[in-house]
Fold this protein.
Amino acid sequence: MTTGFTTGRALRPTTKVLPEHARGHNRALVLQTLYRTGQLSRADIARETGLTRVTISDLVAELIAESLIIEVGQREDARPGKPATLLDLDRNAFQIVGIDLSEYATFRGAVLDLDGQILHRAELPLAGATGADASALVLTLAEQLVAQAALPILGLGVGSPGIVDLAGVVLSAPNLGWANVDLQGILAERFALPVVVANDANAAALAEHSFGGADSDMMLIKVGHGVGAALLLDGTPLYGSRFAAGEIGHVVVGTDGGAECVCGKHGCLETWLATPRLNAALADAVDEDARTQVLREAGQRLGIALAPVVGALNLAEVVLSGPTDLLDGPLASATIDTLRNRTMAEFHGDLTLRMTALGEDIVMRGAAAMVLSAQLGVS
């Protein structure tokens, strides 16, 4: 079975909808309320969601029968009458497999719990593999992780570089030599599990939204094998008409040419900022001043690429994800300076640019968030 995201759907339901769409939405609303708030009574859930007590009673009975919700005991209450029975999401009912294909040297994955905490890890060296060889490595890694799960698996999530459509087909991932690879279908057929495959930057943005406390309007820049970005607008992921929203790595920055990119153009942002390119430039630097200049120039190019997006969307926050030793410091400072110099201070002067607090696990945790959103409607 395969599953995916719905374009334009907010990640966290917060209000009631029309009757013809109500049951699935209200079910997700109950699960979301318990997922974020924790132990509540049926009456508490009714108050939090605005749903009637009869509707809550029916939904809770259904969700208990499916082992998604459990009764955890009675509330200690000094008020008269029978104490309320507390409910919670059964956080020990399932585990999730999350896989990160974004790094240039390794494929990494983990078994996670429903709160996005990593329980087991595995990784395989990429060793320059592309095409079918890279696909085979993904299957091998997934097999290792599925075998490590100690509970039923809610689903398998994958963050892949490149352009990925809503059906989990990798339309183009030049660094892995993939074109029109139905990675979601391949994994679903092999493991008979719900599978979600999405762009790695989109996965990282979901992790930042679910586990990192990001603002509902946010842009995340993912630096690894390549360079990608993801946008959340009013809490809703933006994919674009051809699923390429955020593909800034192959945007040419500046008019002064530059190194040749894997896509065939010269001066793409990726040639300045992708981890292998940046490491190579730093290795050629003769001293610390030269290293700082390499990082500052990469940050300036990133700022040039981001300024029109920040200006057009009036974003409040940009989050960087990738090697901290490369991104945090001169590169980040040059990026924010360039952004502020190229946008209107009265609208964008308070823009925040920061490193993610989720570190190198961000895509794996984002893959788990994708499964939670697709299977349970929670994030």
